[in-house]
Amino acid sequence: MASIVILIAAVLVVVLFLFWHFRQKPAAWMPADAQLQLHREIRRPPRIPFQAEVRITSHGGTETISAQSQDLAIGGMLLKPSMPLSVGQPIHVAFSLPSGMDIDIPAVVCRTVGPSSFGVRFDVMDRQIRTIGEWVEQNRKSA
Fold first, then answer.
1. No. of helices (H) and no. of strands (E), the chain
2. Which is nearest to 129 in space by CA: 74, 90, 84, 66?
3. What's the predicted TM-score (pTM) here?
4. What is the pLDDT, as a whole number, of residue 134?
């Protein structure tokens, strides 16, 4: 019985190694920055340039700061706030889409970008995600 388990484990290891070794790899002629961009496009939803004034409110609603958005995606946005934010900090972001739709959505600070920009991820369960996604999809073709 133990020899069968060992045999199955060995076959599984070989199959996983072959799968990893022969996975699809970027073409050797592709520049490194293009490979990085391709990797980014595969792993996250499309982002479009989006410049707007954003109001950031702390989770408890006690503190409000202003920010300038840099890009927008269905799942979040890149912000340059007037004060530093903390990764993991729950916030609310409020902004207006150029179509006139006001958005006020819960989010969390998920990463820092450079010395003064922060990526925020929207609450995917919020009903406004659909509005943001539709707007991004309509406008990404022209971006």
1. 3, 7
2. 74
3. 0.65
4. 87
